[in-house]
Amino acid sequence: MTPPDWLTRHDGSLRQAPDDGAWVVFFDGAPHYRLRILPATGRFSCAVKQSENGKRIDKGQTYATADEALGGGLEELRTYLGW
Question: What percent of the chain has pLDDT above 70?
Answer without folding.
Answer: 100
